[in-house]
Amino acid sequence: MTVPKKRTSILKKKIRKNIWKKKIYRMSIKAFSLAKSIATGNSKSFLYSKEVII
């Protein structure tokens, strides 16, 4: 016989959501920083071609 699961508290839900949001925020900061370094030409850890093929 199946038993329904207990409901997750609102506090636990908010904590998990905030952890996810912080992780996304850190990833977006890194991506923006990499984009800025590529745009200025100061990137040392990312390899890319400077030629633009049209």
UniProtKB/TrEMBL annotation:
GO cellular component terms, semicolon-separated: chloroplast; large ribosomal subunit
A GO molecular-function term, please?
Answer: structural constituent of ribosome
Name the domain of life this protein comes from. Eukaryota
Q: Where in the cell is it found?
A: Plastid, Chloroplast
Where is it predominantly found? plastid
- Any GO BP annotation: translation
Listed A to Z, the keywords are: Chloroplast, Plastid, Ribonucleoprotein, Ribosomal protein
Among InterPro entries, the record links this protein to: Ribosomal_bL32 (IPR002677), Ribosomal_bL32_plant/cyanobact (IPR044958)
The UniProt entry's sequence similarity note says: Belongs to the bacterial ribosomal protein bL32 family.
This protein is called what? Large ribosomal subunit protein bL32c
Q: Which organism is it from?
A: Viscum album
